Amino acid sequence: MHTYKKFLLAAAATLVMSANAMAAEKLRMGIEAAYPPFNNKDASGQVVGFDKDIGDALCAKMKVECSVVTSDWDGIIPALNAKKFDFLVSSLSITDERKQAVDFTDPYYSNKLQFIAPKNVDFKTDKASLKGKVIGTQRATLAGTWLEDNFGSDVDIKLYDTQENAYLDLVAGRIDGILADKYVQYEWLKSKDGMNFEFKGEPVVDSDKIGIAVRKGDPLREKLNKALAEIKADGTYKKINDKYFPFSIE
């Protein structure tokens, strides 16, 4: 009986270890799902986009099963730190302020910030020309911070919870222009709603590095970096890039 009890204990311990190992093989990626073409939902409600494809490719390289957890943009970093998900792959700009709250991987793409406005409007992007204009941007983004730091006292800045709501107001004529990530706006300008609008001026920020965020001190960061290097080396990254853009965003 004593030997049998020891066997049962050993078997139970093995089951616990196996369960823990299985649990460790599952990760949750956090995504806003309102920022096409990088992340949004398709007609069936599934999360799709460049960020999702990159996240899936990284999970495949790490040999882990991943699921998606969506989060509103305003609370997406607090949600990561509250362990609602394990890593955040949602077009997050790497900034010194955010580095206080999370750790970032190596950049997985580079963006630029640029204005858009109606095609038939003379829209110069210097401070004097924009004085008194209403410019839309998404709240808690690099674009919003840049506008407040550089044009805050001269421009009427209107902040939005999502990029899509900013577009709605631009089409309706409630704002004069938008400052946002160039590659997000590039996609929208090709749409039916965006066909009467265009980029204005040169990018105001020419190298916005985008990273994947993890909680402070999480060793998952190094695993993600290794997987990122691997998908760039084996052509997986280029295949995903080419699915969305006719040019490299790396």
TrEMBL record:
InterPro entries: Iontro_rcpt_C (IPR001320), Solute-binding_3/MltF_N (IPR001638)
Pfam families recorded: SBP_bac_3
Signal peptide, first to last residue: 1-23
Gene3D superfamilies recorded: Periplasmic binding protein-like II
Listed SUPFAM superfamilies: Periplasmic binding protein-like II (SSF53850)
Coiled-coil ranges from the UniProt annotation: none
Domain Solute-binding protein family 3/N-terminal: 26-248
UniProt-recorded Gene Ontology molecular function terms: ligand-gated monoatomic ion channel activity
This protein's UniProt keywords: Signal
GO cellular component terms, semicolon-separated: membrane
Domain Ionotropic glutamate receptor C-terminal: 26-247
UniProt family annotation: Belongs to the bacterial solute-binding protein 3 family.
Protein's name according to its UniProt entry: Transporter substrate-binding domain-containing protein
Organism: Pseudomonas mosselii
